[in-house]
Specification:
single chain, 285 residues, alpha/beta, Rossmann fold, 6-stranded mixed β-sheet, 4-stranded antiparallel β-sheet, 14 strands
């Protein structure tokens, strides 16, 4: 579906956002994980054809996005939900989706209305479809964002930090929605929230400072942390040694620490089953 080779992007002032990125992304849901400022958004905007790379090649659905004709062909099959989606606050959700559908070239009025109604049903906003968008909560706006991205039955859906600002219940709903979408098209989920990846993606990459640090499955990343995650119980002092503390739990007679690396054996130490977060933290370290 997507072939990225030697991709670099340099902004004015010599700021490197991407440094020789190589990636191949296939069907299903692909997770792009990394800290804020790692280059995830730049990569997503480049794949979407919104940014021109400084060097390297990007082929999406068989088209070269650096070519004007290829970029147009990709955009016709692309759904994109940016981190900050511009909405028209005085329009209703139905009016907004109808407008976006027109921009996507869905000119037949009957077909357009049918698609808008289907998308509203999909994101569970049919009952609020005629309310002004300015009255919507953050979660409802994100759902409208995914609805507009899915108009036109895209073959590729790109979502950038989709759960920022959502409460836990909305995050679960949104992840389930994206999982359903991945049955219909390729979904690229860019996020710094590990929870989003662990519950949704069967393939992922970690990007740091514009470079791919890891590529594999969530299981691969967890396996990399096996034997490096420990429970350490102390009388209250923070454990010393070459270990990163992930979490702490207050006990009756001390404190239990979850640590990564190799803890000091002076303490009460026992191995723990690693999580995806443990694998990510060790990789970033």
């Amino acid at each position: 579906m997507i072939e990225i080779k030697g991709l670099t992007k340099t902004y004015k002032g010599g700021v490197y956002a991407l440094r020789g990125v190589d990636l191949e992304i296939g069907a299903g849901m692909f997770g792009l994980l990394g800290r804020n400022g790692a280059g995830k958004t730049t990569l997503m905007r480049t794949v979407a054809g919104l940014l021109r790379p400084t060097s390297g090649t990007v082929r999406v659905l068989g088209h070269d996005i650096t070519d004007a004709k290829g970029k147009l062909a990709v955009k016709a099959q692309l759904g994109y939900l940016p981190q900050e989606l511009g909405l028209y606050p005085n329009l209703s959700a139905r009016e907004f989706l109808d407008y976006i559908a027109i921009l996507k070239g869905i000119s037949d009025r009957t077909a357009r209305r049918r698609q808008v109604s289907e998308m509203l049903e999909l994101v569970r906003l049919t009952g609020d479809a005629d309310r002004a968008l300015k009255t919507y909560s953050g979660g409802m706006k994100r759902r409208i964002g995914i609805a507009q991205a899915m108009l036109g039955a895209p073959k590729l859906l790109i979502v950038d930090e989709p759960t920022v600002g959502l409460d836990p219940e909305e995050r679960v709903r949104f992840r389930n929605m994206l999982s359903d979408m991945a049955l219909r098209c390729t979904v690229i989920l860019s996020t710094h929230v590990i929870e989003n990846i662990s519950h949704s993606c069967n393939d992922l990459a970690i990007i740091r400072e514009g470079q791919v640090l890891f590529r594999g499955t969530p299981r691969d990343l967890i396996q990399n942390a096996r034997g490096k995650v420990w429970s350490v119980v102390t009388g209250g002092e923070r454990p010393e040694g070459a270990a990163s503390v992930v979490s702490t739990l207050q006990l009756q007679n001390g404190i239990q620490y979850r640590v990564l690396g190799e803890p000091d054996r002076r303490y009460s130490v026992s191995p723990l089953e690693p999580s995806l977060e443990d694998g990510y933290m060790l990789m970033m370290a």
